[in-house]
Fold each of these.
Amino acid sequence: MLSPRQTAATLAGFLSAQVVSAQTDASYSSGALGEGPYSTFVSTYATPPLWNHVLPINDTIKPQLTSGLIFIGPRGTATHQAAPYIYNQTGELVWDGSLDGYTQTMAYSVQQYQNKPVLAIWQGQFNAGGYGSGYNLLLNETYQVVGNVTTNNLPGIGADIHEFKITTNDTALLTAYNATQMDLSSYDGTADGYILTGMYQEIDIATGASLFTWNSLDHVDPNECYVSPGSSGTEALPWDYFHINSVDKDNKGNYLVSSRHCHTAYYIDGTSGQIMWKLGGKNSSFTGEGSEFYFQHDARFHANDTQVSIFDNGATSWETSEATARGLLIDLNYSNMTATLAVEAIPYYNLTVAESQGNVQIQDNGNMMIGWGQNPWLGEHNAEGTPLWAAQFGVGDVQAYRAHRSVWNGYPTTLPAFVIQSNSSTTGYASWNGATEVATWELLGSNDASAVVSLANTSAVGTFETNFTIPSSPSYSYYQVRALDSGKLSLGYSNFVSGSNGTVVQPAATQTPAVGAANATTVTSTTSSTSTGFSSASTSGAETSKSVPMLVTMSAVVIACFYAS
């Protein structure tokens, strides 16, 4: 029977399946590893897109970076598995959302809800016209769903793919697209045409009630935008004249809305919905070099609303307006209504436009985390726009709507994955999808109705999957791993796995450490009989811990049977 890694290589049919760690490799950039290289593992079926570090981080750059993990949702025809992913700074996998059932996403980031960090993930149906209809999930630090948010009072119209922003008042900003029949003859369309209106709502997350709804067609004439109907304007393909792609809210209760097809960021009154000013486009309220951008994404307020960050795509699939995409930080002077370009960040890899998607995230230290949209690149620039590091996560049609860096502590309630392979030597492989605090894997051995014995400790810092040699003497009927954090607190136990035939036995009932470092307690020893026929004991003193559900994942059972057959 093939291992998961061998199976992946067979199915992929190209070398990338055999590349299992992040690297800097010229063959990657050339396409020699395929259009969508990805990593594979022995202990899990995770297949995250592989990074190529084109501008690696050195010791000089490292102190200039903010802390946090990297959040992207790779998608596209060359992506092996489209899903939300979490990586560490070196490009090592932390969480593969597909293993928890999540598919391709666009609006995806870490946000705060009720003063706690949550993963915000859009899921739903994509429309061929470049928008979608679905819902937004909130996952807590144990990856459990604690919220589900979509539009309200918009029959048949769900939350769009482009925006999901949680405000400081625990409301959500959502975009939506609505097809409306309209006479388009004055816009070079047909009299019985159809137009897409760009909409957004502010939703109370706890109740689902809509607090504010805005419709572009009520305030922005299609003549103000740059996209003609062309072959669109039909019921099957409505004319997307506005194309809303981000919404932000300031402390005054007003909104900043990005319209890609109008090349404009609109400032909208939070009570009346009237447009108060426009940045960019045909009728900009501002003058100056910071007031020009094209087909942009991700307009955000900063510095008490005196700055706006924007990802300037510079192009779309049918038109190129600039030489390159850019990350922009623009100063706004409301006294003389001038827009001044404060920072311009251009791609490290080469000067090229981004035909779709992209974002700029301003870090706490002023750095700019940039996802280059349709181009499968991400990286970080300093506050002056100088590149600090850059990586690619594909060569062909691999893309990600946005890229963010955020602090995240993950404590999954699934079991750690543990697999044993025997060739010339016996090797154990351990991983735990989504666990961020594992510093050490402790290998444990046990026989029927005997105590668990600690055999070895292996560092897990900076790696997703850790492998270690299982000693041949003394031998045990079953082996197990325990995950420990940097303070030697117990985080979780894997199944017991037979070293001879892969048979799986669930962890002992006493092996239920608390989820979360704040509740985890120092590992100490105790001995008690369990329903599995095993005794659980540690070599280091008495253990007390808060009991939490320890779920046996289907993947762990499948993998064990995989090796037993």
Amino acid sequence: MDEQNRNLILAIVLSTAVLIGWTLMFPPPEAPVLEGPATAADTPVAADTPSAGGATTATTGGAADNVSATGADIGRVEIETPRLGGSISLQGGRIDDLELHGYKTSLDAGSPDVTLFAPVGAQEPYFVLYGWAPGGDLGFDDVPSANTVWTLSDGDMLTPETPITLTWQNTKGLKFSRTISVDADYLFTVTQSVENTGSAIARLAPDNKIVRVGQPLDQQGFFIIHEGAIRQTGEEREEWDWNDFPDLGGDPRWGASADAVQVQENGWVGFTDHYWMSMMIPAADQPFESVLRYSPPSDRYETVVRLNTLAVEPGETQAVTTRLFAGAKEWETIRDYQDNDGIHEFVDSIDWGWFFYLTKPIFFLLHWVNQIIGNMGWSIIALTLIIKAVLFPLAYRSYVSMAKMKELQPEMEKLREKAGDDRQKLQQEMMALYKKEKVNPAGGCLPILLQIPIFFSLYKVIFVTIELRHAPWFGWITDLSAPDPSSIFNLFGILPFAIPELGLFEFLSLGILPILLGISMWLQQKLNPAPADPTQQMIFAWMPWVFMFMLGVFASGLLVYWIANNTITFAQQYLIMRSQGYKPDVFGNIRSSFKRKDKPPEEPTKKAKK
């Protein structure tokens, strides 16, 4: 076996090993089995909460952060908007019940709306707490806590047209108000005010947090998508996965597992999931302390926004406003909040990946095309046509170079025979031949190299963006973000039985799209005769079918792109080869692939030039 064959085999083996290793190392996460819903006792909050003056006050049962699960008994204010539904608990005034209208948990009939926020006592507690950190002579009993019972003083339902106001008064002459409004999409605006009717100055700081108890059960656990916390600090953006929280390091004011940073302007912080997120957003010019904190005993994750301490003089009222995004990661909605509401770089809360310089324009183009066509499947095919048209000049030069290389094959074989084992002499004479005939041997590689980042960027777009979630194409393809649901095991739905569960061997359950992918790759090979070398023949013969199995578990949208790309590439290459005087014998090459021959197949015949 010569060195060329060894290198080819090694490349194929390494590529296959990477694909298999990827599948084994990052399988879909299995949801843990729970005995029952969590209770208040299961989710205690025992953490050190720094006061507004900088001292640390240990919280115990009934202190500021200790949330009980009695909100349903105290009373709730209903939330109803075109995109959201839920309620606000009067206990703590916490937003802890939120569903997303228009997004179902599955495609099954009667499937419920996706739940974003859930109260303590639910299976996955996830809620927002607005409050105040005391300073000076104030203690935690003098400011509203997570268990404070608020009074609904204005409004009876939170809608885009009707805000609500909650009030509470302590025994030292401080009257607290919280006005909450919401728009027609996913943005809450919360104004907290304090009126000092006492005789002493009051020092306190707005202290707002998003809290999750336990990691989400439906997380992807896949490195291609970031899930966890995300923080914007001016021009910098930081990300933490869930497993990073226990290693946050220590902060003397916030606890053993915490990370705090001062933000001067243009900041936001919160949690992001695959398709949903919640972000606390101070005003663009508002300095604040951005904190990530983890409490191991209760497996509690927090993102905190601590604004500057206010000094409220007797007879004075001071207020501060922050915004909360809680909803789906829709590109157009988030972009509008960035452009129209001044939320700095908010569109980058979507994980665009390493190839963001390609991922963003590819998604923008796909989104624009879909607005015209109205079907994501056909839009992906249209996007493929556009990409192939943009790359056509490079593809043309590549295929012309490949055609010329084939024309030089007889002369190159003569050079190999003449040089024998003298590889240096062979390389020199081949380079001289390339220079004489004006052929670039690497010319065919550039379009392939360009396809790699484009492929990964499109995969990122299909995997990450919510616009493809549950997006149908036609027929049996009802979700382009999921693998092809058809299977060869029940003859693609003809036989009346369910597809067996195969676990890590799920790739054996081939659907229609993976099979079409393999056929399209196989037909591309048949534009040229099989290589003369038997080893190369075997490798190229198996390659389409190996990729068919490996890519069969990928999202249907990605397979639609790849099949369309292969089909267009086949047509381009065929026409370009014809324009260069060669007539590819596709059917002859197919017939020869099923026969054993002692001699290699003939090269494509060159037409007589007029």
